[in-house]
Amino acid sequence: MKTLLRSVLCLPVLLLAEPAAPRPVWEGAPPAETLKAKPGQDPKGILNKNGHRTDVMIPEFVVWPAAKPNAPFIIVCPGGGYGILAEEHEGAEVARRLNAQGVGAAVLRYRVPRRDNDKPWIVPVLDARKTIELVRAHAAEWNADPKKIGILGFSAGGNLAARVAYSPAEAGAARPDFAVMVYPAYLFEKDKPDSVLREGPDGVVPPKGPKPVPAFFAHSADDPYPAEGSMALAAKLKALGGSAEVHVWSKGGHGWGASDRCLAAKEWTNTLGAWLKDRGILTP
Fold first, then answer.
1. What distance in Å separates the CA atoms of residue 109 and residue 87, rounded to the nearest whole number?
2. Gyration radius (Cα) of the chain, Å
């Protein structure tokens, strides 16, 4: 009886997700870096009281391994307009929810603020692609299936996820096996419902060729970054032979992440879990 009681008492502890120590994305100086830390400044970024990380010059990622081997694994990209990283409600809390569903995660601290105001995604894309390579190389170490590596992003992080998964890139560029975009920003040329997707070398539309990886979108109808952007990209992916699922909640605005702020914020991770199971990415 005592042994059984001890096992039951220990069970919640075993199920609690615990992150590993941060790991560098790059060995040595990150490529294409143009900023330098001031004397005494931590180049890995500064976490403020709001849970936002600023001034990242040496990108890292924090791994939250899955409890069981061969699990899907998702690289989480917090939003923040490519200026900051909303690291708690669009990062760590997301990883906790994914772990609870049996999915491994890594919260990526990609480089911010913008190095280029016109093309702010350039160095974040480098950081994200390198992280995909590292996760695949260390998949067994983190209980991950190297053929089930996804990317998930919010707002600017959703734009980053879309670019890493779909934008034109050099041959052999690391791509995820699926992509999740939560209220992605800057998909349209202008942030208006009647705008059009950014196309061309600096756009988010995939080139013709290999079938795009499966996509999942979550958005609010009252978001100032219009949900029509998610729907338009989903339609384009389907036209190119891919698959896409879009969920739009009536209210919520922008930036709700994994929180209790609105119905969308409470529900989207369970909806994502159902999609992962339906796609065969997550198995019971």
1. 8
2. 18
**Three-class SS state of 257:** coil
Give tens-digit pLDDT for 215-263. 999 999 999 999 999 999 999 999 999 999 999 999 999 999 999 999 9
Alpha helices by DSSP H, listed for 89-243, are 93-100, 122-137, 156-166, 227-239
Is the C-alpha dihedral spanning 15, 20, 25, 26 positive or negative?
Answer: negative
Please provide the distance, in angstroms rounded to a whole number, between the alpha carbons at the two ends of the chain: 30
| pLDDT tops 50 at residue 10 | no
Residue 217's nearest CA partner among 249, 196, 247 is: 247
Return the CATH class of domain 23-28+40-278.
Answer: alpha beta
d(CA 96, CA 74): 12
239 burial via Cβ count (<10 Å: 0-12, 13-18, 19+): exposed
pTM value > 0.85: yes
C-beta separation of 62 from 53 below 8 A: no
What confidence tens digit (pLDDT) does each residue in 112-162 have? 999 999 999 999 999 999 999 999 999 999 999 999 999 999 999 999 999
CA distance 93 to 99: 10
Interhelix angle 93-100/263-278, rounded to 10 degrees, is 40
Checking DSSP bridges between strand 85-86 and strand 104-109, what pairing results, if any? unpaired
Strand boundaries in 81-201, DSSP class E: 85-86, 104-109, 144-154, 178-182
Tracing tokens 């560098």 back to the chain, one arrives at 24
Q: How confident is the model at residue 17 (pLDDT cuts 50, 70, 90)?
A: low
